[in-house]
């Protein structure tokens, strides 16, 4: 950072060669193949192996297809914002995945013949383009290999084994520009022309559905002079213009808001002003909110606040961090001549950084020395910036296309991992990703030249958190981290091995010769880190062994052929594509919570316990009856604490990002540190911190990130943002003003008791809770409705009998005065005291107390199904029907089932099979998993509302994704 190589120099030095390669396409590949022949080797092309498909059967013919209607409404006002009927998807695709693909990725105007209506059309559009480009540019040994490549890729996409990033689905095979990259890095020099180019280039990238990052450290400081003699504006002032521009552009049309990253080096003289920018704006939000302005996220007045469209990060180096550690001073350098402008106390500046992040989550931190130590192209230039989510880090004026594997697709029934299939999947995906660069268009010629010269790729994965939980491994555990590290090493090692093979077929990347020694050095560092892994389980041991073999084989090939790609892997947020693949968790993240929403055919949604929970319980050895009881408990409470029969040592397996047992901040940091040595790029992830966290806690996290070898880190402290979507109400008159203007009449209403008739229908039943027996007599009005309850649990005259009599009278009088039964049910269910445990009721196998059992039983007998569903109380038959529907891949309508199901006796119910999966229940007010978590926790979550459908979004890496429509705030 002290003596940076002038960015853009590699474009100038190779301008003639780059100009000749402007339209790369076939000419580039012809030259590459000719070069191989000139060295006495004739590339034979790739031989594709059959892994997923069946010979003689097209992948589409192996699945059952069905037609669906996709109608998307705005959750806030109920208006319809999208409608397409009769779309075609495989029957095993969830409603949510189908909705998102239909609304986000189908091309053509809705209602016209050109509109895509089937997943087949979408996959054929993309995969067909990849196959044709691969054949044109000499990737395949024969036409049969090209066809097999097409079928294998189709099968994997059809079965949600992996997904390309969103721009591929937006653009490939359409009449639009074939932009395939999601991540871009720009450069800005110290001139007005360069700054204005930055504004324009960012806008073009946002328009194409992607995001961009830039380092502004070459712009002279506000303390330096202009050539005219005046004082420079400084980089922070130019951030205002870029922020305003980004705020007016929606990426990819109506796809998402602009995503951007702004970085400043820690030795820039304006670093203190940069650190404070967003924290100051947060104070402005508070002042405006208190003055009555609408400052909710998405509110009418929030647009007046600056710097809200970018993530900010400070780029620190080892010299600064060592000064922080020792309590020394640090020099801030001028941009014109490198002279010392100011000397600051390093600890004080680091405290300012942590204070600002504590207040508003910005800025994040990037560790320059680590980033450039793992850089494969240092002879070309330093890595100075990243994309908006901090996972792509490479040369300025470059881009990266992404793809992510669904790790749960490689988990076996017995908890193993299909290593060979994973290797073959990585081979195929990396090949396709590299082919895409051959035909891709880019928003600017500089970016096109840089990407074609270095061919950066970003393979990654999703569902790590689900895989660990299903395998019975806590996310924050050494076993969990080693397994994650082994998988990451295998992925990157295989990707680079295939890259070396591609170099032998179609040539190494153009910048390889200049950077060969550095590239080989970084490959050896990856391999050495893999060798240092100490697997703690047989599954991790098998993966680690294969990873070592892939690195060894790939490095040998690379010594001979070079590599086709300067970068191969990173871990992206996988927001929209994670939903497309029906992933329970995104990127490297743990589960957000143990309960989530599931969309239903025809509209609406239901709350379910994540499907990984019963898988984990079975893997841990719990019998089916206990699995059902624990899952039912989680459905009620949202967590596992005090779940019946669950061992306390197994609690950590079910720890999540939020909720009752949230993973500690350092648990997130340690997981990032475990996987970072096996990634070309970095990791999109935010470290969640509780509201009670201190500035010192933030300092510790940022400092430990440097010590543990991370490349970047961002934190988020709960409720640190002011503009939260807590209410849709607009500011109005104050209550005292209304009262003064219009005196209010006070009318006193008194309840009237409605007594039961002398002769009334009633029923008496016996029950047992943990061996304690009793009798329940319930009487109702002739025109329906419970009006009287009597409980007997002890001998007449005993204290317990007296208490039960008094309690029965109180409840009965309350019912007769109009207190709704559901009010009592809501208050008394989940009450916990002895006796508690197993009951003799087939509908209610577990009870936390006698009161819990009594009012659940009353709810089952006297409340309509809609009210019971809201309270989460179901019969065993209803749970079994849901289980059967889940197993058959069908949607389940509880109300419709209750209306059509025959009335059963208790004996009939006892013969029904137990539910095998999570109990489902609708929510009264929640519209997403984030809002559901708010209900469980009883406090608001810091997440924005979706601009498309109004639903509260959920975290995905360092970005957010909408579960309702798939819109994201990020770049992948």
Automatic annotation (TrEMBL):
It comes from Luedemannella helvata. Residues 1-14 have a biased composition (Polar residues). This is Vitamin B12-dependent ribonucleotide reductase. Residues 906-922 have a biased composition (Basic and acidic residues). The keyword Signal does not apply. PANTHER family: RIBONUCLEOSIDE-DIPHOSPHATE REDUCTASE (PTHR43371:SF1), VITAMIN B12-DEPENDENT RIBONUCLEOTIDE REDUCTASE (PTHR43371). Residues 758-861 form the TSCPD domain. Residues 70-160 form the Ribonucleotide reductase class II vitamin B12-dependent N-terminal domain. The keyword Isomerase does not apply. Its EC number is 1.17.4.1. Belongs to the ribonucleoside diphosphate reductase class-2 family. Residues 181-716 form the Ribonucleotide reductase large subunit C-terminal domain. InterPro entries: RdRp_reductase_class-2 (IPR050862), RNR_2_N (IPR013678), RNR_lg_C (IPR000788), RNR_NrdJ/NrdZ (IPR013344), TSCPD_dom (IPR024434).
């Amino acid at each position: 950072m002290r003596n940076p190589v002038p960015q853009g120099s590699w474009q100038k030095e190779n301008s003639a060669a780059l100009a000749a390669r402007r339209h790369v396409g076939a000419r580039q590949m012809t030259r590459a193949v000719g070069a191989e022949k000139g060295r006495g080797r004739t590339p034979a092309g790739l031989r594709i192996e059959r892994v997923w498909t069946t010979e003689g059967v097209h992948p589409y013919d192996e699945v059952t297809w069905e037609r669906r209607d996709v109608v998307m409404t705005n959750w806030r006002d109920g208006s319809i914002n999208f409608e397409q009927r009769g779309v075609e998807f495989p029957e095993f695709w969830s409603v949510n995945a189908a909705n998102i693909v239909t609304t986000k990725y189908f091309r053509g105007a809705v209602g016209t013949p050109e509109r895509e209506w089937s997943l087949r059309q979408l996959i054929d559009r993309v995969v067909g383009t990849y196959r044709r480009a691969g054949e044109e540019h000499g990737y395949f040994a024969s036409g049969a290999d090209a066809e097999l490549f097409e079928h294998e890729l189709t099968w994997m996409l059809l079965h949600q084994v992996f997904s390309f990033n969103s721009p591929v689905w937006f653009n490939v095979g359409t009449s639009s520009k074939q932009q395939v990259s999601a991540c871009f890095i720009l450069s800005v020099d110290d001139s007005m022309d360069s700054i204005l180019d930055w504004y324009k280039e960012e806008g073009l990238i946002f328009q194409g559905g992607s995001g961009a990052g830039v380092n502004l450290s070459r712009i002279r400081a506000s303390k330096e002079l202009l050539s005219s003699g005046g004082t420079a504006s400084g980089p922070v002032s130019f951030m205002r213009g870029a922020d305003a521009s980004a705020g007016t552009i929606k990426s990819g049309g109506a796809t998402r808001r602009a995503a951007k990253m702004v970085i400043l080096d820690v030795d820039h003289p304006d670093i203190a002003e940069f650190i404070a920018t967003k924290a100051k704006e947060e104070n402005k939000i508070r002042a405006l909110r208190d003055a009555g302005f609408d400052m909710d996220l998405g509110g009418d007045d929030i647009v007046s606040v600056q710097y809200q469209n970018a993530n900010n990060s400070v780029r620190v180096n080892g010299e600064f961090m060592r000064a922080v550690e020792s309590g020394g001073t640090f020099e801030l350098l001028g941009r014109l001549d490198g002279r010392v402008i100011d000397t600051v106390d390093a600890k004080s500046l680091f405290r300012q950084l942590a204070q600002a992040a504590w207040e508003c989550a910005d800025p994040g931190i990037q560790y320059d020395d680590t980033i450039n130590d793992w850089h494969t192209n240092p002879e070309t230039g330093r890595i100075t910036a990243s994309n908006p989510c901090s996972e792509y880090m490479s040369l300025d004026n470059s881009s990266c296309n992404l793809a992510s594997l669904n790790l749960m697709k490689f988990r076996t029934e017995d908890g193993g991992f299909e290593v060979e299939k994973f290797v073959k999947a990585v081979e195929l995906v990396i090949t396709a990703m590299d082919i895409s660069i051959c035909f891709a268009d880019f928003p600017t010629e500089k970016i096109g030249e840089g990407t074609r010269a270095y061919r950066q790729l970003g393979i990654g994965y999703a569902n790590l958190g689900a895989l660990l939980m299903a395998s019975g491994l806590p996310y924050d555990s050494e076993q969990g981290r080693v397994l994650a590290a082994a998988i990451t090493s295998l992925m990157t090692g295989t990707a680079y091995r295939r890259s070396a093979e591609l170099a032998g077929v179609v040539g190494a990347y153009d910048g390889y010769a200049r950077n060969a020694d550095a590239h080989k050095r970084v490959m050896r560092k990856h391999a050495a880190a893999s060798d240092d892994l100490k697997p703690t389980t047989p599954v991790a041991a098998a993966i680690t062994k294969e990873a070592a073999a892939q690195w060894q084989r790939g490095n040998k090939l690379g010594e001979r052929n070079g590599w086709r790609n300067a970068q191969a892997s990173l871990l992206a947020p996988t927001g929209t594509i994670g939903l497309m693949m029906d992933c329970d968790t995104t990127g490297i993240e743990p589960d957000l919570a143990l309960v989530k929403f599931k969309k239903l055919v025809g509209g609406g949604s239901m709350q379910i316990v994540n499907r990984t929970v019963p898988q984990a319980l079975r893997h841990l050895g719990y019998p089916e009856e206990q699995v059902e009881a624990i899952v039912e408990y989680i459905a009620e409470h949202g967590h596992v604490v005090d779940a019946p029969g669950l061992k306390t040592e197994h609690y950590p397996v079910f720890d999540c990002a939020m909720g009752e047992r949230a993973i500690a901040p350092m648990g997130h940091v340690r997981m990032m540190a475990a996987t970072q040595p096996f990634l070309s790029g970095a990791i999109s992830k935010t470290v969640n911190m509780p509201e009670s966290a201190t500035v010192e806690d933030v300092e510790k996290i940022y400092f430990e990130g440097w010590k543990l070898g991370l490349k970047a880190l961002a934190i988020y402290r709960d409720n640190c943002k002011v503009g939260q979507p807590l209410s849709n109400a607009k500011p109005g008159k104050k209550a005292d003003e209304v009262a003064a203007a219009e005196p209010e009449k006070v009318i006193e209403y008194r309840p009237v008791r409605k007594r039961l008739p002398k002769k009334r229908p009633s029923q008496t039943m016996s029950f047992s809770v943990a061996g304690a027996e009793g009798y329940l007599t319930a009487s109702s009005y002739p025109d329906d409705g419970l009006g009287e309850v009597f409980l007997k649990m002890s001998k007449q005259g005993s204290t317990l009998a007296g208490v039960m009599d008094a309690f029965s009278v109180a409840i009965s009088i309350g019912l007769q005065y109009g207190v709704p039964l559901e009010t009592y049910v809501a208050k008394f269910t989940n009450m916990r005291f002895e006796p508690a445990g197993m009951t003799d009721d087939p509908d209610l196998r577990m009870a936390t107390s006698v009161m819990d059992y009594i009012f659940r039983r009353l709810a089952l007998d006297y409340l309509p199904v809609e009210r019971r569903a809201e309270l989460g109380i179901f019969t065993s038959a209803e749970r079994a029907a849901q289980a059967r529907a889940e197993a058959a891949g069908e949607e389940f309508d509880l109300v419709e089932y209750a209306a059509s199901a025959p009335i059963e006796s208790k004996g009939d119910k006892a013969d029904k099979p137990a539910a095998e999966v999570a109990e489902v229940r609708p929510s009264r007010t929640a519209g997403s998993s984030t809002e559901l978590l708010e209900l469980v926790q009883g406090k608001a979550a810091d997440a924005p509302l979706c601009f498309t459908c109004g639903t509260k979004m959920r975290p995905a890496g360092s970005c957010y994704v909408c579960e309702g429509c798939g819109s994201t705030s990020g770049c992948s």
